[in-house]
Amino acid sequence: MITILKGTRVDNRLLPAGIILYGPPGAGKNTFVHALARETNVSFFPVSAFDIKSEDVRIERLFDEARASSPSIVYIRYVDELAKRRDCESSPALVQLLNEMEKCKDNGSIVIVIVAPDYPKNLDPILLDSDMFLDQVHLGYPDEDGRRKIIGLHLKRVLREEDKEAICDIVASQTPGLNWRELRTFAIICTTYAASRGDVYVKMDDVFQALEKINNNVFSNLDKLMAQENMRRRVASIAFGSQK
What range(s) does the AAA+ ATPase domain occupy (predicted)? Predict the structure, then answer.
C-alpha cells in the first residue's frame, strides 16, 4: 500500500477503501497511522468519532475535503463511539460514513479510511460486513526485536552512540510483554534518572534502575558487571577500529 500511495499514478482499484487496524490498548495504533501518513506524504485528516458522530454534515464536509486533496488518509479515532455494536439500528453517522466512502470509490478518488478499535468484535456488523472495510490488520505487542527498535526510537536523543546497542539489547531482553506505550514510559523513567544525576544522557545504571522500578526486579551485581563489561568491550572495539 505504501508503494502504491507513493507512486506517481495511483489507481484506487488497487487500494482498500477502509482498513480496520486493531490491537490491545497501548500497542501503538495511533503512532502507526501517523507514521504511515508521514511515510506516504499524502493528505492526512485525523478526526475523533466524538466530533462527527452526531453531525452528518461534518462527515460530508470531511470527505469533501479528503476527496479534493486526494490521495488522502482519513483516520477516525475512537471509532467504537461511532460504530458500537448495538441491538437497535445502526447510527446515522455510521451509515453516512459508509455512503461517503462509496462515493470515493465511485468517482475515482483515493481516500483510505483507517479506524483503530481495540477489539473489532465490538463494532457494528454493518461496518464489519461492509465492502468498504475488507482489510483487517492486527497490531499486537512487539517481540524482542521490535522492543529493541522501539526503545531505540524513544531514547535516540539521549543515548551516546557507543552505549546505544548495549542499552537497547538489555531493555529488549528484559521487557517481555511491554507495549509501545509502556516502553515510552520506560524511556521517560530512564531520562528522569539521568536528569537526577545532572546528565542529559542515559547510562546503563539508569536503565537498571528503571527496570527495577517497573519489574520490581533487583538485578544482581553480576548482571550489572557483565553488562558494563560488554559495553566496555564494544567501546574498545570502536576506539581501536577507528585507529586502524
Answer: 15-143
Cell for 83? Answer: 460504530
Residue 188 confidence (pLDDT) above 90: yes
Q: Residue 4 pLDDT > 70, yes or no?
A: no
Please state the pTM of the whole predicted model.
Answer: 0.74
* pLDDT computed for residue 133 by the predictor: 92
CATH number of the domain at 187, please.
1.10.8.60
At residue 63, the pLDDT reads: 95
Min mean pLDDT across 25-34, 68-77, 84-93 is at 84-93
Whether 244 is covered by a domain: the verdict is no
Mean residue pLDDT across the chain: 85
Chain CA centroid to CA 152, Å: 15
Looking at the structure, tell me whether residues 92 and 47 fall in a common domain: yes
- Is residue 52 within 8 A of residue 63, CB to CB? The reply is no
**How many distinct structural domains can be found in the chain?**
2
Pick the closest to residue 206 from 217, 221, 195, 218 (CA basis).
195
CA torsion, ordered 176, 181, 186, 192, to nearest 10 deg: 180
Cell of 157: 536523543
Q: Are residues 93 and 124 in the same domain?
A: yes
Which cell goes with 179?
507495549
47: containing domain: 2-138
Same domain, 104 and 160: no
Task: Write the CB contacts of 218 (distance below 8 Å, at least 6 apart in sequence).
Answer: 212
Residue 243 lies in a domain: no
Cβ atoms of 173 and 220 within 8 Å: the answer is: no
Question: What burial class does residue 14 get, using C-beta atoms within 10 Å of its C-beta: 0-12 exposed, 13-18 middle, 19+ buried?
Answer: exposed
Distance CA 159, CA 101 (A): 45
